[in-house]
Specification:
Number of strands: 14
Helix content: 40-55%
Largest sheet: 5 strands, mixed
Shape: elongated
Radius of gyration: 30 Å
Number of helices: 19
Strand order of the largest sheet: 1-5-4-3-2
Length: 508
Amino acid sequence: MRLRALLEMTELGLTLLTGGEKADRTVRWVVTTDLLDPGRYLSGGELVLTGLVWRQDSGDSERFVGCLAAAGVSALGAGDPEQGGLPSDLVEACERHGIPLFHVPAAVSFAELTELVVRRLSTARASDMAAVLDRHRRLVAGATAGAGLDPVLHLIGHDLGMPCWVLTPAGRVVAGSHPLPAETAPLLARGFLTAKRMPCAPPGAERYSVLPVDEQTTSRVADWFLAFEGAWDDWSRERRALAAELAAVVALERARMDDRLSPEGRVSQELVRLVLSDGRPGDILPRLQVTGLLSERGYVAVAATSHGGLRPGELRVVVKELLNGSCASPAVGVAGEEVIALIPAPETDITGEVREAARALAPGLGRGRLTVGVSGVAPVEGLRGAVEEARHARRMAEGRSGPDAVVGHDELATHLLLLASVPDDVRQVFRARLLDPLRGYDREHRADLVGTLEAFLRVSGSWTRCAEILHVHVNTLRYRIQRIEDLTGRDLSRLEDRVDFFLALRLG
């Protein structure tokens, strides 16, 4: 379909503002978007429709139009019912990038415009394909207003006889055209995580076809996927095209639900930052209220780290999935390479649920590892201690084998629970006072006094066993211990001094 044909549809009342010399361009498809950078969802030749929700200031027009030009779209149709006309910076950006720009009047909805264009395009497609795509495009507009994916999947499942579902890598059903048997979801998820190529028929669920929502994703454990009833190899070209279109729709819905840039997501990040900096309860409580997490029962903290394979942003998505069974909207924040989550205290210990979800995701981690720590219940005043407790548990999980190590608060030793409530500055001073002289000596003399101290305490001060572990003579060991005592002014024959050294090493 040519752009010129759009102008000939007088019932639409479109006005071409720029790019008249390109009126013979071909329109391959219609895409409606309010993303500032929709490039990943464009493949070229589209008529892009937008309501300008993305525009916060004049500079956004250049970024948006530049993205469209890079993707090779055919034209842009824009309308703003509240403003009437279009901003001059958008017109100028389209002129600079050579993008034809149509003004869509307020009386014409994007759904109506899409419907008319798709009807023109549908002559080259099968009749059932044209009808479904026309209707599901209109339903996507409804999804933006909060209808979700269920109406779209219901339409495809019932109108074309193509039952379909959207699932997470942990096997949770996000939306579907029909109820999915509970025993099937884990098989589909495992098939998605382990498949060498897509689409695939998962082992144990061969009557289904599985394909990714985002083929460019760097890690499947942080993505969603689509499952269809039926064998992909038996489908017509039209039905395969419909599946690809549906994947694009689901990707848009998933991006819309990503809360990292939403007010709630930013408040969650700020809440985690406040807790880590030992913020006052008076500052923390309002943010808990904004995120909907106020709880009289207290709170539980979760700390997670990925060892290879997951970026912090992807790990954040995974942590939210791990906690979905306990809290649909946890407060999640990134702290360096670590992700911290806070949730209202549930009725029961969530460690088992988190461990089960992590185990389900493990096949998709490849050579990477996921380590998770879960704290006990703490009041608002003890949130910092709960986070430190979760971190201690996570560090303990690092010593476990397997790709999905999860440690709960009940596995922590009593001294770790005690240390979790000690302020950072106190711990740093305590650790430095005892260990810095030994570390300085080790650096200067290439010695191993710290390692000797660790081994000595591990065998409860047994000279013979410690010398055997270190492969040194007992006299050499006695010399090293004497050097440790001289540098620190402590006596390792005294229980209280041994306890101090033990705690300092654990803090390090």
